[in-house]
Structures are given as structure tokens and as C-alpha cells.
Design brief:
alpha/beta, Arc Repressor Mutant, subunit A, D-Maltodextrin-Binding Protein, domain 2, elongated
């Protein structure tokens, strides 16, 4: 009967692509990893890994068995949580878009942290596409990211939490000739445009708004930070399409205006990416419960 340790070694090889990389991650030698994989193959009476000179890739049988092995290991890792005392405690390692922390996600973290003072949440900032891989490999317990534009790996699940409409932001004191009025389409057509990285997931939403508007934009810069774009618009360098972040006091901002697209309904959906089974599921369930109850500060007690 294969041990949990051996199954974890198999998962490490599948994630890191070589015996050496897997060995470094789990604290074994490459030779020990090779022996464990060979033992697992003998126990299961099949070939799981195709060995190359510089790589170790899953065989067709290995790929077919991967989801079941992930589930077995995930269920095992979740066992300690079932025996824990009431309340959340310990360390959770989370990934989050900086713009998500400027949105509704920060309220959820603050509320849960207040209700569970023994809980230590460590946050790492980055891009949605990077976080997906880091959650899959177990480097992160979960991540608050934009909705993936394609199907997620079988061992992961993305749960929607809230949405933010895409809006046009316009400087109050532009360093260019700004079209009069409040028609976002007309302004978008004539003003210097600060574009969010078109390769990023939020950038795909920006591109969808532009496509539906039928406008050829006057592109000035392309950046991969919503926060930087907002600040550059405040400084009068152009206009931009961004998610309307929940915790930004847009109506009190004296440096920019926010214009809604009347007939273009595109929104960024922010959700929680996690493995189907992991040891911090009580924490991620609390996050999801908070938003399911409408984001009330008394809703994370479950």
C-alpha cells in the first residue's frame, strides 16, 4: 500500500517536472525521489512517469490518476482541521491582487481577522495568472484573483465572490484637450488612453469594453498595475478603463471623474482560487460565507 509521503512525492514530480526540482521542494535527494516513484509504480503495477534525460513527465496513466491522488492527499491534509478547537488559528498564506485589497476582499480579511485573533494571514501580491500555478503547487493556500478566462486545472476550484463594473476614469485637470461632456465613448475615442496589460486577465476585460464600444483608442501607455494607472489618470496623463474598486472613495476624488458605460455591461469578477482539498478549508469557507451573506461584518462566524 503506497504511503501518503510517496503520493506527495508523485505530486511534487508532476508539478516541478524533474526529480531534482521535486527533491529540492520536499527535502529529499533526487535518488530518493526516483526510488519512491519506482516503488509507487510497482505497487500500482503501472508506469506513472516518463523519464527523460532532463525531465520527468506524467505518462498517460499518470495523468489519468493525478486527480484521484490529489484528492487522497488533500483529504489527508484536511484531517487536522477536523480535530481543531473552535475558531480559526495558525498561518494561512494567501495571494491577492493589490486591486482586490483595494476592493471588497480587504473587508473580508479584516472581519475574519477580528473574529479570530489567533489567525495569522500572510499576503503575497501578484498577478492572477501567476497565483493559479502557485495555488496548484501548494505554495499558496488560496488566492483572490480575477475570473480565469479558461477552464482551471482539475485539482483547483474558483468560487466567485463579488464583481466590479468596468468604468472609464477621466482626469479633472488633463494635460491634453479633453472632449466636453460626459459621454465615455466620445472621450475614449479622442483622449490619450492608458491601457491595462492586454495579456493579463483584467486586460482582456478592457479589450472587451473597447470592442463593444467600436472605438479605436489613442494608446499612450500600457501598464500592468491598476493602482499605477489610476494615479497617472489623477496626474492628467490620459484616460483609462479600470474595475470600479469597492473601497476607493471615487465620489470624493477631486482629481478624476468616473463615467459608467451605459450600454456596455462588462464587469471583473473576483473570486477565490483554491485546491479542491487542502488543510485551510475552514478559512476559505469563512471567506466564501462572508460574501455569500452580503459582506456583513458579522457573517464570518460560521
Amino acid at each position: 500500500m503506497p504511503s501518503i509521503r510517496t503520493l506527495k512525492t508523485f505530486l511534487a514530480v508532476s508539478r516541478y517536472g524533474t526529480f531534482a526540482a521535486a527533491a529540492k521542494h520536499i527535502g529529499l535527494t533526487p535518488a530518493a525521489v526516483g526510488l519512491q516513484i519506482r516503488s509507487l509504480e510497482e505497487d500500482l503495477r503501472c508506469s506513472l512517469i516518463e523519464r527523460g534525460a532532463r525531465s520527468a513527465t506524467l505518462s498517460p496513466t499518470g495523468r489519468s490518476m493525478l486527480p484521484e491522488i490529489e484528492e487522497i492527499v488533500g483529504r489527508y491534509e484536511a484531517l487536522p482541521a477536523a480535530a481543531e478547537l473552535p475558531g480559526l488559528h495558525g498561518t494561512v498564506v494567501m495571494g491577492a491582487l493589490v486591486s482586490a485589497l483595494m476592493g471588497g476582499f480587504s473587508d473580508a480579511l479584516w472581519t475574519i481577522k477580528q473574529q479570530h485573533p489567533r489567525l495569522d494571514v500572510r499576503l503575497l501580491a501578484g498577478l492572477s495568472s501567476d497565483f493559479t500555478h502557485r495555488v496548484e503547487t501548494g505554495e499558496l493556500d488560496a488566492a483572490a484573483i480575477a475570473q480565469p478566462p479558461r477552464a482551471v486545472p482539475s485539482g483547483l476550484v474558483w468560487t466567485p465572490l463579488y464583481s466590479e463594473p468596468m468604468v472609464l476614469i477621466v482626469p479633472q485637470r488633463p494635460h491634453f484637450v479633453l472632449a466636453s461632456g460626459s459621454d465615455p465613448i466620445h472621450i475614449l475615442r479622442t483622449a490619450p488612453f492608458l491601457r491595462f496589460d492586454h495579456n493579463a486577465w483584467t486586460g482582456l476585460l478592457v479589450e472587451e469594453v473597447i470592442r463593444r464600444s467600436g472605438v479605436r483608442t489613442q494608446e499612450s501607455m500600457e501598464l500592468n498595475s491598476v493602482e499605477t494607472i489610476i494615479e497617472l489618470v489623477r496626474q492628467g496623463l490620459g484616460v483609462s478603463i479600470v474595475p470600479k474598486l469597492a473601497n476607493v472613495a471615487w465620489e470624493h476624488d477631486q482629481s478624476l471623474r468616473v463615467l459608467d458605460f451605459k450600454n456596455i455591461d462588462v464587469a471583473r469578477r473576483v473570486g477565490l482560487m483554491e485546491r479542491r482539498q487542502h488543510r485551510r478549508m475552514r478559512f476559505t469557507e469563512a471567506i466564501k460565507h462572508y460574501f455569500a451573506q452580503g459582506g456583513r461584518r458579522d457573517s464570518a462566524e460560521a
